[in-house]
Amino acid sequence: AGSQLREIFDKINNLLSGKSVQTGGRTVSVTQHPQALDFVYYKLAEKFVSQGEEEVAAHRDSAFPIAVVASGIWELHPRVGELFLAHLHKRCPYSVPFYPALKEGTSMEEYQRMLGYQVKDSKMEQQDHFLKRMSGMIRLYAAIIQLRWPYGNKQGPHPHGLNYGWRWLAQMVNMEPLVDVTATLLFDFLEVCGNALMKQYRAQFWKMMLLIREDYFPRIEAITNTRQMGSLMRFKRFLEECLQQKQIPLPKGALKPSFWKS
């Protein structure tokens, strides 16, 4: 509910602002240790990314309540935003976007980790699990760039707004596609913030969508074999529908004004 989200936001903001906060039956404050604030900044940013990786990966709609809190905290405490991006880029290099190359002297296990895979006892995680985690993080990022905390003063610009989303999209289509990954993440990103980008960039946005369909999609298709067609076909359906209707629907789970009255 909106009221619960406000409580969570206020608690985090109070903690970062140096006030005493009740948690787990005790009172804590960042004034109790000279490095406490840096530690809390770091752990909070890490926690936001983990929520994308776990919570949003499992429940897609949860991207919006998590993102609106993250966006509001980022606005008031810019250090959290910088650290959020650092954690995000490390766990999901595609959020840069960046595809790490295999360099001489790098072990295969180390390289798999650089690509974002979890490797335990020299065993790499399953591809579907990997894609689900990457999707969760990209969806959270796509939600953050379009959302503002509704109770802030909103005088200045968004600390990391839609222009970063536009840049991400442009950079993605300028890179050689990767099997599975590119189609999955483009779909996730556009499903979550395509509506906001469409409203902001209008004609430019539709030019980009046409470019993706006419030029970039065939390049993804060319490297995809028949066993890996799932994510590609889902992306194709999405592209076709949007271009046909000249409309990208509001994402499922988007926070409506009535949410804040709950």
Automatic annotation (TrEMBL):
Record's keyword terms, sorted: Coiled coil, Cytoplasm, mRNA transport, Nuclear pore complex, Nucleus, Protein transport, Translocation, Transport
Pfam families: GLE1
InterPro entries: GLE1, GLE1-like_sf
Molecular function via GO: inositol hexakisphosphate binding; phospholipid binding; translation initiation factor binding
Gene Ontology terms: cellular component: cytoplasm; nuclear pore cytoplasmic filaments
Annotated coiled-coil segments of the chain: none
Top-rank lineage group of the source organism: Eukaryota
Keyword set includes Nucleus: yes
Gene3D superfamilies on file: GLE1-like
Annotated GO biological process: poly(A)+ mRNA export from nucleus; protein transport
Subcellular location: Cytoplasm; Nucleus, Nuclear pore complex
Protein's job: Required for the export of mRNAs containing poly(A) tails from the nucleus into the cytoplasm. May be involved in the terminal step of the mRNA transport through the nuclear pore complex (NPC).
Family from the record: Belongs to the GLE1 family.
Protein name per Swiss-Prot or TrEMBL: mRNA export factor GLE1
Organism of provenance: Syrrhaptes paradoxus (Pallas's sandgrouse)
